Amino acid sequence: MEIEFWWLLALPLFFALGWLAARIDIRQVVHESRALPRSYLSGLNFLLNEQPDKAIDAFVEAVRIDPQTIELHFALGSLFRRRGETDRAIRMHQLLVDREDLSEEQRLQALGELGQDFLKAGLLDRAEAVFLRLRDTRASDLALRYLLEIYQQEKDWAKAIGVASSLPDHENVHWRTEVANFHCELATQALGSSNFEDVRIHVEQALLTNRRCVRASLIQGDLLAAEGHDEAALDAWKRIESQDPVYLALAAQRIMDAYGRLGRVEQGHLLLRSWLERHPSLD
User: Engineering a disulfide at 113: which of 64, 76, 93, 209 sits with its beta carbon 3.0 to 4.6 angstroms away?
Assistant: First the structure.
């Protein structure tokens, strides 16, 4: 195969360009590595050798030598949090938040990390304050998910419902199930204080959100029974078979009690036997 003459001329040129590009890359790498504190490189070496304690000491020294290493501040703060050293993580990320030379993206990241530090430390009020600041920013999705975690820990179900309903994927099955359960928590609280109207409202909301919510049917039956409406209570509990028959055992005693009050115990036995025939795996 003959080689075109111009290829012979071009080959040395391509070689020279490749050599020049490599030299530029090498010089850049060398320049950047010389600009880093020696303790930073030592820290990386300790991490590679699975010596995290020594790595942290080296990174702390690197930050002391060169306070401009923003990414190192982030990495070190996260490392402190993972190790449970939340006080040090909070100080590291607070320093970042207070800096005036951060870009908007870096400031949002620093606030998000600080909020996670507070959450890990159990400082829920301070974590909530940070994530509320982030709620209407580009970090909104992250903030909403952590706010939901906080409100669940605090058992503040009304706020949990508000936050869950604002999540971008709030219409999927998982969140509809969760929101229905939050309404059931509020209904249970209202039932305990005999606030029957609130029970009714939250049970209806739970079933509207997730029509297969067994817990809502149980609570609705309990409400109707407490109001003296045993027939309607039985209808609510019987609905569980179409929602999820696995949980029918939770309604069995309630149903027998209601039939007992109505003077129709044998009818209750017949119903339970029919359930066992259709669903042999029930206890």
Answer: 93
